[in-house]
Amino acid sequence: MNVRRSAAVLAAVAVIGAATPAAAVPSPSPSQAFPSALYGGTDPKYDGVWRQSLALLAQDTVGVKPAAKSVQWLARQQCADGSFASYRPDPTTACDAKTLRDTNATSAAVQALTALGGHDDVTGKAVGWLKSVQNKDGGWGYSPGGASDTNSTSVVIGALAAAGEKPGRVEKDGKSPYDALLKLALPCGGDDGGAFAFQPDKKGELAANADATAAGVLGALGRGMVVKPGETAGEKSGEKSGAGCAKPGTPEQAAANGAAYLATALAKDDGHLMSALAGAEPQPDYGNTADAVVALAALGETAQAEKSVRWLEKNSASWAAQSGPAAYAQLILAAHATGTNPRDFGGADLLKQLGATGPAPQTAGKTAGTTKSSEKKEESGSDFFGVWWYVGVCLVAGIGIGFLFTGRKKQQQL
């Protein structure tokens, strides 16, 4: 999930941060024409499939039926071997050895198309491809063969679970995805105890990463990007982050430890996370905050999740408008996870704003439903992936886009 993401990682060379503004996402020139079925108006080279998947998944989650041509566009992005690249300008041209397959895009597409239904052939081939590129440690990197990272492994777990697989039984050399995540969980002790790292550094050391932690919590719980309000894995597993950090001997305990770390980090800065890009001025990380909300809600940590949603309601509008469809999707999924009405999110209609970035949906969906009433929001009394940069030719990450995400584009090794 981030891609639940400190800096979303979307690399073909390897989503920590999850996405905001210094080096902006490249905008299309007047001569460029992107598919009319695609959500967003910026260059889709590094995130076309990712942002399309999130947009469709977010709409479906709250009862909106997306435009048929947008769903069809996503399905047609698949390569013959079942994989998805970040973006294929001409899907009629077969994928070849130069096509940069992307585990994050593939997993996001699986989650979206499974939720929408009617694409079992596409999702089945995609899951088969994901299994075929599993690393020996049980995890996945952004690109096939790349070192396993928390964000990629977690979003693949979400895809496997969505497709009806049992992630713990998907093994390579006797190692499951959960084995890979446990190796990326920091031990208890110190301010960073219980967090997840994105990857070990060159010395093999683990450094806490909020984006990776949000992703890791969902992954360790075997959950995807969508968390239904009131349906918590924490209650089922018996683990709660409030119990404090304990040795992460099981995926459930690692998830509880990660949630405790996130709750502490959110409370420290008035309900939101801060970006931690080297050399940049500290600034709120909206995308990772949204991903953290989903992660906490999945474990039943509703008090802090709701406070952070209130903060996002008050402060995320400009970020979302600048960042585009993936950002609106992240906010919708965070709102859904906490039972907040996405059509009245700080006075804004997130569904309408998301819809304005692409084709009009077939149906408008429900205005209420599983969301809490405005009175309930007031009773809480609390306030609720863009900077993009390139690393080499294939690396893009966004501050504030988050794991979910990850704007999940290129592996962040910064």
UniProtKB/TrEMBL annotation:
Prenyltransferase alpha-alpha toroid domain location: 53-166
Residues passing through the membrane, by range: 387-406
CDD domains: ISOPREN_C2_like
Pfam families: Prenyltrans
Gene3D superfamilies registered for this protein in UniProt: 1.50.10.20
Keywords: Membrane, Repeat, Signal, Transmembrane, Transmembrane helix
Leader peptide range in chain numbering: 1-24
Region spans: Disordered: 230-250, 356-378
Designated name of the protein: Prenyltransferase/squalene oxidase repeat-containing protein
